[in-house]
Write a structure and sequence with these properties.
Order of helices and strands: HHHHHEEHHHHEEHH
Number of strands: 4
Structural class: alpha/beta
CATH superfamily of the largest domain: Nitrile hydratase alpha /Thiocyanate hydrolase gamma
Number of helices: 11
CATH class of the largest domain: Alpha Beta
Number of domains: 2
Strand order of the largest sheet: 1-4
Radius of gyration: 18 Å
Shape: globular
Mean pLDDT: 91
Bound molecules: fe (iii) ion
CATH architecture of the largest domain: Alpha-Beta Complex
Largest sheet: 2 strands, parallel
Strand content: 5-15%
Length: about 200
């Protein structure tokens, strides 16, 4: 089954479920829209960028973040829970000798709350299969050419676990404020397909 077929089938199932909930009087169409919009309005890569900027300026926060990300991001009013059981979040830090990149080899699991809706390439079979086998080649195709002595760690998301990359703070940013630093962080940097 192609991915388009899969997502069409899932969309149809979701729509049937919505209709049954509406028919049963559990929730109205308008209420469903409100819930979804509220969720998506809060789901943005700005959240991930705020986390990274705080970790760059606050060493204690950085340690708490790498140790227990679910607890640490609550300090910024963020969570991976929403109205549901909270997903486990692990933040993995890039160093001079280690670069991290995230994937979901099975489907498209992604820390939506912190990165916003995922890019279409993240869900593509090409990315999901190749980044595990030839990560250096895939990152080079994104324009990220890592030195041979930098090890690459690929983190495979699952139904319960989500990952986010903590990029290295760019050199020459010592004078920047936390907000300015957050403005440097891209969605691709949080996935690991860009340096920052
Ligand atoms: Fe998945």
């Amino acid at each position: 089954m192609s991915e388009d077929h899969a997502s069409t089938a899932i969309a149809a199932r979701v729509r049937r479920l919505e209709e049954r909930l509406v028919d049963a009087g559990v929730v109205s169409d308008a209420e469903l829209d409100t819930i979804l919009n509220r969720f998506l309005a809060k789901a943005s890569p700005l959240n991930g960028a705020r986390i990274v900027a705080r970790a760059w300026v606050d060493e204690g926060f950085r340690e708490r973040l790498l140790d227990d990300a679910n607890s640490a991001i609550k300090e910024l009013g963020l969570s991976l829970g929403g109205d549901h059981a909270e997903l486990r979040l692990r933040v993995v830090a890039n160093t001079q000798t280690l670069h991290n990149v995230i994937v979901c080899t099975l489907c498209s699991c992604y820390p939506l709350q912190l990165l916003g809706p995922s890019p279409s390439w993240y869900k593509s079979l090409a990315y999901r299969s190749r980044v595990v086998r030839v990560p250096r080649d895939v990152l080079a195709e994104f324009g990220l050419h890592l030195p041979d002595d930098v090890e690459i760690a690929v983190w495979d998301s699952s139904a319960e676990s989500r990952y986010m990359v903590l990029p290295m703070r760019p050199p020459g940013t010592e004078d920047k404020s936390e907000d300015e630093l957050a403005g440097l962080v891209t969605r691709e940097g949080l996935i690991g397909t860009a340096a920052v």
